[in-house]
TrEMBL record:
Protein name (record): SSH3 phosphatase
Pfam families referenced in this protein's UniProt entry, alphabetically: PH_SSH1-like_1st
Biological-process GO terms, alphabetical: negative regulation of actin filament polymerization
Region of interest (Disordered), ranges: 1-40
PANTHER family: PROTEIN PHOSPHATASE SLINGSHOT HOMOLOG 3, SLINGSHOT PROTEIN PHOSPHATASE HOMOLOG
UniProt biased composition (Pro residues): 18-33
Spans traversing the lipid bilayer: none
Slingshot N-terminal domain sequence ranges: 41-121
Organism: Pomatorhinus ruficollis (streak-breasted scimitar babbler)
Organism domain of life: Eukaryota
Length: 121
């Protein structure tokens, strides 16, 4: 299935199928990021998922290691009523131009789950 995303400053959000993409021009890429690199990362991360899963939100995180690229994903099956199967995934790329990624964390989100993110953001 085709998925559309809006990407702004290191974050990507899945657009619902019936919502057209925004008409405004995309923001300028950060100087440290090659053009199209975020799209490449999204494509590689989608290959980690099951066919019925979709990325609802992808956020690029700061990494303690200078070259490593990290993302936090919110993933949920595309079928209606699947909110109970939402999970947070941590995905790592060894460096900016890496052609493969690894899954570093899987955290299922239950109705009583509380998530606290610590840091500057």
């Amino acid at each position: 299935p085709r998925q559309s995303f809006v990407m702004v400053k290191g974050a990507a959000r899945l657009l619902p199928a019936e919502e057209p993409p925004p008409a405004e021009p995309p923001p300028a890429e950060p100087p440290s990021q090659a053009p199209g690199q975020q799209e490449q990362h999204l494509h590689l991360m989608m290959q980690l998922l099951r066919p019925q899963d979709a990325i609802r939100l992808a956020v690029r995180l700061e990494s303690a290691r200078p070259r490593r690229v990290r993302y936090l994903l919110v993933v949920r099956p595309e079928e209606a009523g699947a909110e109970a199967e939402t999970a947070l995934l941590g995905v790592d790329f060894a460096h900016e131009g890496a052609t493969r990624c690894t899954l570093g964390m899987v955290l299922p989100l239950w109705s009583d789950t509380q998530v606290f993110l610590d840091g500057d953001g």
